[in-house]
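--- STAGE predict ---
source: upstream dedup step, 1 unique chain passed
mode: sequence only
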Amino acid sequence: MSILDSLTEATTFDSHADIVIFIERLFQEGIVYLRRGDTKSVKSYNKDPRNKVIIDEEVEFKSVQYICPHFGTHNSRAKKGRRLNQHVMPNYCPVQIRFSYNPDESVKKFKITKLELFHHTHPVSEAHLHTYARKKHMTTEAFDFAKSALVAGGQPTKVRKLLLDKFGSHLISKDIINLKQTLTGKPINNEVAITKVTFTDKDCAEIAALGKTFTKAVHLLCQFHGLKAVDFHLTRTKNGEIEREKHHEIRQNFRAAMYAETPDACDKAKAYLIGPGLGSLGEYFADNWFNIEDKWTNLGRRNLPTFGNNTTNRIERFHHTIKDVLQKTKRLSEVIQTLVNVTLLRLSDRELKQKIREVRFSTPSKPELIRKFAESISPFAWNLLENEIKIMRKNYHFILDNDYLTYTIMSRNTNYKLKKDLSSCSCHFYSAFGLPCRHIIYFHFKDNLEIPSGSYAEHWRNECLEVTIEVNEPNIVYINNNVLMVLE
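--- STAGE serialize ---
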C-alpha cells in the first residue's frame, strides 16, 4: 500500500515543513507530482479584524493547497486565432490536497480539509512526472552546465534549448531568467526591505513594478483614485440601465464601505453594492472592488504603518514641480537648471520654517516625562502625539499577563494588547504611525518613566535639528554652447 492510499482527512501534520516533505516524497516515489496552489498566509489571516485568534507567524500558512498541474478550468489560448501553438496545462483535473491549520490550543496542527486523489481527463505516466520537473529535479551535471552558460553571458532561450538537447532536462524560461538574475548578483530586495507599505492607483504596471521591487511591502490602493474611478464608471453607465437618482446613493455606500470602522458596517454597504438591485453595476463592484477589499478599505489597512497616508496625493503634491520640469519638449540644460533651483528653494524653505518655529509665540509647556522625546520629533508628529494626550483617560482598566508579558487594556468597544516593556501596542494609532499611543504614554506617566528621545519610529525624527545642509551657488559649465548648472 502506497503512502497516498493511507492518506485520509483524519491525517494531521505538525508544520508546513512536514507537508512539503510529504509532497516531495510523493514525487520521489513516482506516485504523483503536485504543485502548490492557493494559499492563505498567517500574516494575511492575522490582519483580518474578524479573526479573534492570532496565530504565531512561524506557522507560515493558515491554509495551503497542493494540486495536480492539470487542476483547474481549461481556457484555450487558441481563441480568436491567437497563440495557436501554446499548450494549456489546466484540464479539469480534480486532484488536490488542501491543508488547514487549526489554532486551537488542544490541536495546533494542519488538518486535511479537501482530499481528491483520482486523476481524470488526462493521462498520467512517468513521462508526465518528468515533464513537470523544475531545476531542483535536474541532475547536478545539467545544473552546473546551466550556471556556467548563464555566467558566461548565455541567453536564457538558447541555454534552455541546449539543456533540452544535451541532457533532456525541462527547464522553463522563467526559471532560467530567475537563475541568471541570482548568479549575476542582483540584490534580492534592492535594499528596500524596510519599506512596509506602498500606494498606487489601479495601474497594473505600477503595481507589478512595486511588487517586484518592494518584495516585503504590502500594496494598498489610493482611496482618492478609488472614489474617482467609481465616479467615472457611473458617468459611463448607459442611460436606462440604472436611474441617475441612484448614483448618489451608490457613491454614499461605496464611501461607507471604504471608511467603515467595523466589519458589520462594511458588510452592510457591500450587500447593497453587489446586490441584484444594481444589475451589471453589482457585478462591477464584485469583480473589481470587493475581490480586493483589503487594498482600499480602512479595515484592510488598520494594522499597517501608513503614517496617516491613505492616498497618493501628498507625494504627488510634493513632486508636482519636478513632474512639470521633466517634459520631453525641454532641453537637458533647462531641466538641470530648474531642478537645481527647486532643490535650493526647498532647502532654504526648510531652514526658514525651522527658524519660524524657534521664534514663534510660546505654547503650553510639554510634560516633563515626554519633553526630550517631543523635541526630537517633527512638529507634525508632536501634533499627533498632543492629540493622543488630550484623549488619554486618567485611568485605564487593565490586566497584566505575566506569562505573555502583556497588559490587556479594556475599552468600551474592544481590548488592546500592550507589551509590558511598553515597546508596542495593538491600537490603531501605534500601528499606523509608530508613535507612542495614549496607552503607552499613560503607563509612562503612571510609573513616572521618561520616554527617551530616539525611541519608537525613526521616521518622525526632526532631522532639521540634527543635520545642517549647506548648498553653495552652482557652478556654470559650458558644454557645446549649452549651459549646465552643476552643484558643488
